[in-house]
Amino acid sequence: MRIARDLATLRAATARLGPRETLAVVPTMGALHAGHVSLIQAARQAGATAVVASIFVNPLQFAANEDLARYPRDETGDLAALQAAGCDLAWLPTPAAMYPPGHATGIEVVGPPTEGWEGDARPGHFRGVATVCAKLFLQTGAGMAMFGEKDWQQLQVVTRMAADLDIPVRVIPCPTVREADGLAMSSRNRFLGPEARAKAPALIAAMRAAAARIAAGEAHAAVLADAAAALTGQGFGMDYLALVEPATLQPAPPSARRGRMVAAARLAGVRLLDNIPVPESNT
Ligand code: PAF
User: Fold this and answer.
1) Is the dihedral of CA 51, 57, 59, 60 positive or negative?
2) Which of 40, 48, 59, 98 has fewest C-beta within 10 Å?
3) Cβ of 27 below 6 Å from ligand 1
4) DSSP H or E stretch at residue 272
């Protein structure tokens, strides 16, 4: 596996990796776990002949009060994991390589997929994500981009951005990878203490139970209010738990029995995000 830390090295290396159409990029912020590794495997399954993974903790997508300094970093472990997963090229730009002095351009998706939920909770977050992803697509020239469904709203925002800018890249959604007890894998899970870690799967359990009730015909507003109250009683700080239209993230109409259930909850200082299709088999 080659490693590039500046744009000239990246461009020379990607030029040797074969045709654009079957070059896949796996954008990450490092602290890699099995969910990230699954994106590399998914790229191969989708026909990628070469995979470039980026590791860049993107300052633009963290608000001033957020955990940029505390975000986990493990370059040695990450490079070993990428190598073991069969990645061809690791793109590790420095902040100055990604945003050289004078950098002044941002990409902002204005409209439904960015409105509400994470868009409200983290002002500026999706502008940072869209900007860095547009740059990663253009820098690598990849024709495929692998994104986990775990960050459902991010996946919709990036898909919209690539389409709107006519970037010739297919954004490919990949299923959320879960721990054995159901907790969605996330680099931030390592901050959960033993007690919070034991409690965390209650979120997905409540979501799955709620999805079954909605699919069986109960009104989603009442079901989700019940579930949120129960989770609050267990110590979760609920930011939201809602049924939305999958591509636009607009709230589902009261009679809806299908859609995407999205949730964000704080547990012992760690923010947990999850989402599932409703009905659950509706992937
Ligand atoms: O999901 C992430 O890890 C990040 O938001 C991404 C897509 C790598 C952009 O920085």
Assistant:
1) positive
2) 59
3) yes
4) strand 270-278
Specify the ligand 1 atom closest to the Cα of 54: 8
pLDDT digits (tens, 9 = 90+) for 49-100: 999 999 999 999 998 888 899 999 999 999 999 999 999 999 999 999 999 9
What is the distance in A from the centroid of ligand 1 to the CA of 30? 9
SS3 readout for 183-218: CECCHHHHHCCHHHHHHCCHHHHHHHHHHHHHHCCC
* Residue indicated by tokens 């993107």: 58
Residues shown for the chain: 283
pTM above 0.90, yes or no: yes
Q: Tokens standing for 76?
A: 């040695």
217: tokens are: 């015909």
Closest CA to 270 of 160, 216, 194: 194
Give the span between the Cα atoms of 155 and 220, in whole angstroms: 24
Phi and psi at 46, nearest 5°, equal: -85, 0
Question: Whose structure tokens read 């994106």?
Answer: 39
- Tokens standing for residue 267: 């547990």
